[in-house]
Specification:
308 residues; alpha/beta; Rossmann fold; two-stranded antiparallel sheet; 9 helices; binds 1,4-dihydronicotinamide adenine dinucleotide
């Protein structure tokens, strides 16, 4: 069955412009009732153009879709709660949350005011935590939910002058990894999008590729898929931009196991790095606080048989 959102209700944060706008337009076009959240902030997070959310709502309604505007900021838990409540009050349910709102305060760490570090964390990380927390109870109670967090190549790969942003964008992946486990029993799936698009946020940063190849609406189909009932994955990181789609995954190299009863010196680690530092046969990180340690120690005969 083709992906559609008839009967589904979605919140898209920061959907008054850029990527959030194209996510909202696509979800609405495919049948979702959409809460277009946006206080109308500048790229730096200042100001409040209270018309941007309504403009997207008008566009959705003009095409026959259903949408409402919400102007709350995601930064405060109370605002996030109101965003979710507006979906419940107007449409009676909430099935989809796309955490998209974002700002930039780029500077090298040497020159960065810590207030600007915090402001970026507040919108990207706490904004995502606040909205997800508010939606979580609703989605768990109805045993259905699809959540998307928005990460970035700037965190995953690093980016000069974006330590605040990169930190925040990796934080949402940690959140996703844990909630992927917590949500699975109640069919609440959470995945990440790592987008690339020409928006006001990237204005001047991606001059080497013409904007026409970096349309925001080339990212939104990946977000819509992650928001769909058909997508039963959880904990994915999907990269999308310029018509290209790929998957990111935290990997671990096969590693070197020393006998934990013996001495390990810095020199032996340095020497072992020649082997464990090689990236040719990585495997996805084992989701356990000890990784695969128990398995390896058992293979060495250092632990008894597994009880499982
Ligand atoms: P944008 O600046 O066009 O859109 C961001 C939206 O978030 C704006 O409409 C803004 O008003 C809203 N916003 C800001 N503070 C808010 C708050 N406190 N509460 C609610 N909404 C708020 O930028 P763009 O490019 O569309 O970015 C969307 C998301 O995608 C962001 O999370 C960004 O970090 C992320 N991203 C974008 C990339 C790109 O290539 N454009 C690359 C990687 C990540």
């Amino acid at each position: 069955m083709a992906i559609g959102f008839e009967g589904r209700v979605a919140v898209v944060t920061g959907s008054g412009s850029g990527l959030g706008r194209t996510h909202a337009l696509l979800l609405a076009r495919l049948g979702a009732k959409v809460v277009v959240n946006d206080p109308g902030a500048s790229v730096q997070g200042t100001g409040d153009d209270r018309s941007v959310a309504q403009r997207v709502v008008d566009q959705i309604q003009a095409s026959g879709g259903q949408a409402m505007a919400n102007l709350d900021s995601v930064v405060e838990p109370e605002g996030a709660a109101r965003i979710v409540q507006s979906a419940l009050d107007t449409y009676g349910r909430l099935d989809i949350l796309v955490n998209n709102a974002g700002i930039l305060r780029d500077r090298t760490l040497a020159k960065l005011d810590l207030a600007d570090f915090r402001a970026v964390i507040d919108v990207h990380m706490y904004g995502t935590v606040n909205c997800t927390k508010a939606a979580w109870a609703v989605m768990n109670a109805q045993e259905y939910g699809r959540i998307v967090v928005t990460t970035s190549h700037s965190g995953i790969g690093g980016s000069f002058g974006q330590s605040n942003y990169g930190t925040a964008k990796m934080a949402v992946l940690g959140l996703m990894n844990c909630l992927a486990r917590e949500g699975i029993r109640k069919n609440v799936r959470i995945n990440a999008i790592a987008p690339s698009a020409a928006t006001r946020m990237t204005d001047g940063l991606v001059a080497s590729v013409p904007d026409e190849y970096l349309r925001a609406d080339l990212v939104s189909p990946a977000v819509a898929w992650l928001c769909s009932e058909q997508c039963e994955h959880t904990g994915l990181i999907v990269s999308a931009g310029g018509g290209y789609f790929s998957r990111f995954q935290m990997m671990e190299t096969p590693g070197v196991q020393f006998d934990p009863r013996g001495e390990v010196t810095p020199d032996s680690v340095a020497e072992a790095f020649e082997k464990f530092g090689r990236l040719d046969h990585p495997v996805p990180v084992h989701p356990h606080p000890l990784g695969n340690l128990e398995h390896r120690l058992r293979a060495l005969g250092l632990l008894g048989e597994s009880k499982q």
